[in-house]
């Protein structure tokens, strides 16, 4: 009986393997994604991975051969007009493999042959598309009604009237500034004919969706420039929060910043050509044939070839570009990470990171174990006693002593933002002013002679007195305990340094407590833990309120949304004001239709309706400038 069951199980497994193999053969023939069960055998998975690699290798070899043949052919110059363009892509690079780039090839002398093949196929498809539109315009047109955002109704003809024509009818300025249209809530090209009765919204660059479309178009310009410059294989070029990027496979070469000027010039020339952005609806199989030279490197497979990514940003006019560049420069200059490092560097401090746990022998050497062990968190591991550090001094002494020191290195300044633990009595704990775990802006300065400390105090101009019994582990005591020495100017290698302990804030937590009490909960916007509260007018607006909250959160703000249906609108606003949210954003059906918010402050000052993108830009500016009165400046 057992033998029969074993044989039946073996046959069942073999049948499953056959089904998997059959599915795999079919997938390879059709080049489709994997459809067999996830539990397919490891051997089959290994064969599949090897087959993928071989297929990609073969594809690259074919492309390399085509590129070499193209280089051997005579180059044909591209025609371009002399009209100036105001849009200017700014290009930066982010290589997915951080390797040194050297010996990169020069710009291609002619475009790869697959570009010409792609354009021929596109022209064929475009003729078919234009013929279909012409037929519909001649035979299927009818009068339609277009509802504009202000409620007015315009007349038009289906398959003939375009959003751009309607924009011109409103004002030439609107037509010039419009980037994209929305028809019945769907993004719609400005020159795409309307197909029936609809609502129409014209979006300019200050709208977030319009920016995404503009940057997506700019990504295609960058892609064309990259393809013509490098001759590689385009993979993916989406818009992102601030600009766009394009990924490209270019075999074994990298991207150098020295190539950016040439790449930007190519982008400018493409813009001068005023190539139209045209929309075609075609079958997936045709697109696969059109872009067969580009394969799916961008799917994030670690065992596939490395891609090169180039970032860019563009604007409709040079004024906006200059404003962005100025803002970026200000943001870089105000970056606290940059400022902090620069200030430390300017004062000749070296920032270090020391361990959180030390063996008790270190604390015995420093003297802390004898005098301070009851205030330390200690524990035993493998018959050894360890403790969380209550201060950084002994660790910094070890750093000083790890190699011979010279008088030329003095004063040596070591800064540390390490976490400290002290087992304070529960009765002494008080909010953030006295805690058991805290961080210090700690530093130790190793000086040459103790007299320098007295001289500095004398020169400071404030009366001081010496307290010999205090500072139990500083001054000359720690250097003696750790036998710290340096080579003096006279060649004596037994000179003792003096340690000066410096903490400007002391405890960072204590400083936060002082600021909280000083501001009384009314934190300035740039420092506030409660920057934005989104309040929906009613249940029908809750989904939009959540969307707005997410947009502000993704833009880097501390944002929340009040979905408590038991409270009235006024109660929600009042709750947000009492919680000291800097800005309260009220949203209803009107704001939803305009993708806007109605702004008021915690002091109940009403600023009115503004688009979400404009509000985000304003708040970003207030945050970067660290304005103390952002609510008034809004």
What's a concise summary of this model?
With 634 residues, this protein is α+β, with helices and mostly antiparallel strands.
Keywords:
634 residues, alpha+beta, five-stranded mixed beta sheet, extended
Can you put this structure into words, describing what you see?
- This protein is an alpha+beta fold and about 625 residues long.
- The protein folds into four domains: about 1-70, no CATH class; about 80-315, Threonyl-tRNA Synthetase, Chain A, domain 2; about 345-460 and about 470-515, BirA Bifunctional Protein, domain 2; about 520-634, Rossmann fold, CATH 3.40.50.
- Helices cover about 40% and strands about 20% of the residues.
- It contains 21 helices and 23 strands.
- Strands 1, 7, 8, 9 and 10 form a five-stranded antiparallel sheet that branches. A five-stranded mixed sheet has the order 3-2-6-4-5, with helices on both faces.
- It is extended and about 105 Å long.
- The N and C termini lie far apart (about 85 Å).
